[in-house]
Sequence to fold (279 residues):
Amino acid sequence: MLSYQHGFHAGNFADVHKHLLLTLLLQSLNRKAKPWSYLETHGGRARYDLEGEQALKTGEYRDGIARLWQQSAPEAVQPYLDQVAAVNDQQLLAYPGSPLMAAQMGRDKDVISVMELHPAEADALKNVFRGDERVNVHHRDGYEGVLSLLPPKPNRGVVLIDPAFEVKQEYRDLVKFITKAYKRWPNGCYAIWYPLLPAGLWQQMKRDLAATGIRKILCSELDIRASEGERGMYGSGMLVINPPWQLDETLAEVSPWLAQQLEEEKGSGSWRLDWLVPE
Fold:
């Protein structure tokens, strides 16, 4: 599991989908003056060089954030684009990972706790946040680390679960983690990212999650191409437990635009939004 490095994929279409939704969650938390907690299981290095060797090897960001960069966008998308602009000038050279987006949107009393097991990524993560007393970086297993901090103080906020899904067991491990985490912090908001791959292992994960008895699970999925006969990731999925009020309405407004911007070929993009488990 220590082979995965997100630098090859930073800023791709899945990051756009995931981080747009994350900024909507953080924006909702910021509407109240009370401080919040942000916890993440797989933090990565927080800041990615789009001119670096990893990003240039795959070029995935060109079909992701580069398509949205300095383009006219719906109002709800602008806070996400603002977070990307905060680490760039006129030219798109860097991409902020989710820990950095949380820190940029965080206020003085908000608390950010990020787990990362990969040694090199953990070191890079610590370098990004050196001197920022709001951010705690933990070089440890993401699931074990986050569970040890639940319930957090402050007692409102969000957990982002974003594993690499390099092995089949990851889908089952994620459901086990959510089950334990929810028991410790039932009022927390949990945002779960997963890849849409031809093997379809995410479908069983969703069924298992629905069977836990946890209520209020919103599902947002984005396809950039058809899945038939394809290898590799063709779409991105996000599950949100305890979503903020009207998140479903906002996603319904922006998802058609997002699918059109990120689709591989004209007409090949699609989106789905529904309640995996209602209230």
